[in-house]
Design brief:
Helices cover 56% and strands 7% of the residues. With 219 residues, it is of the alpha+beta class. It binds glutathione (GSH).
Length: 219
């Protein structure tokens, strides 16, 4: 039985795990949860993806960071490349985990609360949305300030932290962050454009375009 990576094209957290399975030619089968809902639900009762499973070997992983880590450590044949992606000192490893976790937890959740009501993927409530906007602006500023003095999040090259964070920013850049937004956040925009061109993730980002306009609040 092949190892299966469950994903959904509607969600951002599985983007990097999927790209890594392809980049490292892992043979892991990428399965859209919509096409295998019964088995997905049976194995992943929280209904969250990504999820990685091989019933024969007993491999069972949830959590984006853990799955990415497993794929890189298992399938990247070049120890130097592993260090590039996952860090070459304890502090670098810790920083990569820090930014990766921050991106797929706090940042992702605040971005969802801010962007999804604008595009009909969550109910819109004007008061709740005004709070969500403030919360999002506070977190996005942390990236903008950091990237003012750093080309990438942790090191002078792309690490897993950048890949993770670029997938978290995808929702915004795809549906809302237009040119005007980019003028306000030039460092994030410069960084996002560079990271998403990386061969690690270009299989996903290659044909994606930045949003043309920021969606107005629903009436
Ligand atoms: N802590 C998990 C969260 C996974 C998660 O929330 N995934 C989202 C997609 S990006 C999901 O499946 N949402 C569906 C749901 O919560 O019902 C991780 O880091 O992987």
């Amino acid at each position: 039985m092949a190892t299966i990576l469950y994903y959904s094209p509607n969600y951002t957290r599985p983007i990097v795990p999927r790209c890594l399975t392809q980049y490292f030619k892992t043979g892991i089968k990428n399965v859209d949860i919509a096409t295998d809902m019964e088995a997905f639900t049976e194995n992943f009762p929280l209904h969250q993806c990504p999820g990685l499973i091989n019933r024969e070997t007993g491999l069972y992983l949830t959590e984006t960071i853990s799955i990415q880590y497993y794929i890189i450590k298992t399938f990247c044949k070049d120890p130097k490349e592993v260090k590039i992606l996952l860090g070459s000192t304890i502090l670098e490893e810790a920083e990569i985990l820090r930014w990766g976790s921050f991106s797929v937890s706090d940042f992702n959740n605040r971005e969802d609360d801010y962007i999804k009501p604008l595009i009909g993927l969550k109910p819109y409530d004007a008061h709740a949305h005004s709070t969500a906007k403030k919360q999002f602006e506070a977190i996005v500023q942390i990236f903008e300030d950091h990237l003012e003095n750093h080309r990438f999040l942790v090191s002078d090259h792309i690490t897993l932290a950048d890949l993770c964070a670029s997938s978290a920013f995808f929702l915004g850049f795809n549906f809302a962050f237009d040119e005007k937004w980019s003028q306000q956040y030039p460092n994030i925009t410069r960084w996002y454009k560079e990271v998403t061109k990386s061969p690690y993730v270009s299989s996903f980002f290659g044909d994606k375009q930045q949003a043309k306009s920021f969606p107005p609040p629903p009436k």
